[in-house]
Amino acid sequence: MKLSLLIPFFIFCSLHLLAQEAEEIPEGWRRGAGIGLDLTQLLQINPKQGAGQNRLGFGSAVNAFAKYKMDRRTWDNTLLWQFGLQRLGSGVIAQGSADKIPFQKTIDELRFGSKYGYQIREDGNLYYSANFTFLSQLVPTYQFPDLYSGNFVSDWLDTGRSPLSKFFAPATTTFSIGLDYQPTPAISLFFSPVSSKFIIVASDSIAARGVHGNQVSGTPDSRGIYPEYEKIDAQIGALAQLKFEASFLTDDRVTLSSSLGLYTNYLRNPQNVDVDWQNGLAFAITENLLFSLFVNVFYDDDIRVQITDYDAPNGTAGLGKRVSLTEQLLITYARTF
Predict the structure, then answer these.
(1) Residue 176 forms beta bridges with which residues?
(2) Which of 123, 204, 229, 248 has the fewest Cβ atoms within 10 Å of its own Cβ atom?
(3) CA atoms within 13 A on the CB side of 60
(4) Which keywords does this chain's UniProt record carry (predicted)?
(5) Count of structural domains within the chain
(6) How many CB atoms lie within 10 A of CB 287?
(7) What would the pLDDT profile of 111-138 be if each residue is shown by its tens digit?
């Protein structure tokens, strides 16, 4: 995928101007955590014709950070887990069946990031830096396309089939050593010309599907299972990461954070850039209660995603290389300590 970087460039330049007056970060540890929830519920008993159907759904986002600064050393750690379930309708999946309509997974994404920096020159803006990122799912996902569409957190039909994904299958990790430029406390521009990336699928049955970015070979069978596969795809390339976080308006009621990661694999299709862009917007309703919006944009040249097609059954039409967009709206309780 060939992406123009002009839009992100101008965005971060604009944010740089807005952040010029940011306060200096105090030394020592700063920690904080928040949990966001959304709940949707609708119950109808003996509904009118065309009135709709029952709905029960909930989502959550757990967001935490631990940041350290002392003299010329900095260490930033962040954790984000987004998860959601929903059930549409009630009763059984089909006439004569004893299987109740189950809950479906709507989102499951676990992220961890850690970056250590050492200031090259006292009072300077440039740091030697080591950067680690981790991305996976926490809960297994099952699919039954021949029986009932959707993504489920258990084999509720007792078919004995393997999950489509689970924790560490897949997982994507990067480790990079490079330079980090911090013109203000709100902005970080990190670049590593030699960065390692690993796509890990720690399950034989899941790796044999060949849908998570691991390399496969041979002719797949009728179920789409490949006879030969690798469980780890090791890459070497370059990583650029741009981060911004600042508060605006009266009493800093609005907080905007953005992290854009760009990776190119020297070993395979280096002209196609992998993109991981995380954005958060929070509006303070009270001191600890926030109205939060998360928007993530993702593209990996090695990973095939479900292609959205609203004219196709269940809104998807096969697998392919596409940009993936995720949006989640929550009411969040957050504290800093």
Answers:
(1) 131, 195
(2) 123
(3) 9
(4) Signal
(5) 1
(6) 9
(7) 999 999 999 999 899 999 999 999 999 9
Burial of residue 126 (number of CB atoms within 10 Å: 0-12, 13-18, 19+): middle
Instruction: Check: CB of residue 38 under 8 Å from CB of residue 293.
Output: no
Structural contact between residues 285 and 314, judged by C-beta atoms closer than 8 angstroms:
no
Residue 283 located in a structural domain: yes
CATH code of 45's domain: 2.40.128
pLDDT in tens, 252-270: 899 999 999 999 999 999 9
Domain ranges, residue 81:
6-336
Q: Are 259 and 243 in contact (CB under 8 A)?
A: yes
Note the residue count of the chain. 337
Identify whether 204 is part of a domain: yes
- For the record, the structure tokens of 30 come out as 């700063």
Q: Cβ atoms within 10 A of the Cβ of 204, count?
A: 11
Span 316-330, mean pLDDT?
90
Asked if residue 330 is part of any domain, the answer here is yes
More confident residue, 194 or 146: 194
3-state secondary structure of 49: coil
- Binned at pLDDT 50, 70 and 90, residue 23 comes out as low
Chain centroid to CA 208? 24
- Report the pLDDT value the prediction gives residue 227, as an integer from 0 to 100: 96
Q: Going by DSSP bridges, is the β-strand pair 126-136/104-119 parallel, antiparallel, or unpaired?
A: antiparallel
183's tokens:
């013109």
The model's confidence at residue 31, banded by pLDDT at 50, 70 and 90, is: very high
Closest CA to 278 of 257, 300, 256, 296: 296
Give the span between the Cα atoms of 17 and 2, in whole angstroms: 28
